[in-house]
Amino acid sequence: PRPLPPPSAMLTSRGPALCTALRRAAPGGLASFHSSSRRCRAARVAVVLSGCGVYDGTEIHEASAVLVHLSRGGAEVHMYAPDVPQMHVIDHSKGQPAEAESRNVLVESARIARGKIASLAKLTTADHDAVIFPGGFGAAKNLSTFAVDGKDCKVNREVERVLKDFHKAGKPIGLCCISPVLAAKVLSGAEVTVGHEEEEGGKWPYAGTAGAIKELGAKHCVKEVTISFPAHVDTKNKVVTTPAFMCETALHHIFDGIGAMVKNVLKLTGK
């Protein structure tokens, strides 16, 4: 059989105009035209940690889930934490404060980040397309005073700056577990979820948080932690939230719910 002519000849024989249009669209040739999708810049996502350990810092499983799903989504990740002392240190084997012991939030967060972490003061919207806050009591103790002051809480100055800057820039913000209280406090009228509004026999032990969110002026949206209804997307404010460990449930449900939050955050970046 006769060999097929080269692709360039086939294009030319089918229409010089088409060939010219393709060359203009891809000055480097057809190879560059087909490889352009591979050169698209990945979404750059900042992850803000609050220590290391559920009762006095970042919930480690939540942080890991966030990082795994960001990796799977092809994101470029940078981690940050405020360079401040923790509110207190909890002995996680006893669930009680460790007297006369103090730790630094940035230093502790570096454990999760495998050392690759920077002070939150260096986080800028210009360098990132989105920001995500995992949960853990550190969000209510080190990033804010919510654990002590409830609706009258104050938010760490750098955390407040980051939330306002990303919101003003129209860049998505993801939060899970207890961390949606940060958005509720800082972003007026934001819609968030921490799950259900009743404890339901202990399944939702922190359901009272929903009431505090309403008192802060935010709208609380009841959501499940499971994959079917795992995240709430406030499209107006580009805030995405999921309950995570606000619910007593199997770990894989937590993981999947965080995955839905991450997926929606990446979708909102448009990358």
Automatic annotation (TrEMBL):
UniProt keyword annotation of Mitochondrion present: yes
Location in or out of the cell: Mitochondrion
CDD domains xref list: GATase1_ES1
InterPro entries linked: Class_I_gatase-like
Alphabetized UniProt keyword annotations: Mitochondrion, Transit peptide
Coiled-coil region: none
Main location: mitochondrion
GO cellular component: mitochondrion
Record-linked NCBIfam families: PRK11780.1
Protein known as: GAL3A protein
